Amino acid sequence: MNQNVFSKVDHYSRELLNHTASQLYEIEKTMDSLGIPDMSVSPNQGQFLHILAKAINAKRILEIGTFGAYSAIYLAKALPEDGKLISLEIDPFYAEIAKSNITKAGLSHKIEIMLGPALLSLIKLSGEKNPSFDMIFLDADKPNYPNYLDWIMKLCKPGTLIISDNVVREGEVIDPDTADEKVRGVRKFIQGLSQENRLTSTIIQTVSVKGYDGMAISIAG
Ligand code: SAH
Ligand code: DHB
Ligand code: MG
User: Fold this and answer.
1) What is the pLDDT at residue 144?
2) 37: CA distance to ligand 1 center in Å?
3) pTM, full prediction
């Protein structure tokens, strides 16, 4: 098994099953041409998020880390017309790209981007009247994952589905001596999940066009 096979199977699945991917092809091409890091979820991971959101009949979704809104678009497409996805982004340039992509996808009415450090936006959100979400997608700066978990716990209710991206990192997550701040953040986050008795969690490892990584999946009970 190697990356070449993983990519080919990912393309096979995308071509046959992922019709949203072809609609988003222009957006993907534009993002590639901008010379910014490729941090979006893969098309099939986007489809997976979409299926999860549909499966739980999500009406309010929180995303931490918007980037170009690629994952946001897949998630928002699963929402009913009056559903809402709130996505948090610190970088004004990425937020502008996201807004343009969201408009192109015809989803402006369902997606709200909150610009600024996510920890500040989370404080703001938790002060609102009905702050809880049906689904939360955590995908921002990895060293802050443990801090995000504290806020996620304030913003979830029984049944909230929490998906956290990039927690396997080519298997580095099992190295207790790692010097990588991202891996250290993720390890502390997974430790936090393990101690959170309101959550049932697992890690799903993935191979894809993006290499070997994985998502943590948790449900609040
Ligand atoms: N979810 C996106 C990818 C997100 S990449 C997708 O799959 O399409 C991670 C994003 O988190 C980047 O856009 C980065 O600017 C943003 N980010 C990093 N630190 C942040 C912070 N402290 N607050 C909010 N966003 C942050
Ligand atoms: C990075 C962040 C992501 O969320 C991702 O999926 C891939 C890479 C990064 O910070 O490099
Ligand atoms: Mg990610």
Assistant:
1) 98
2) 11
3) 0.98
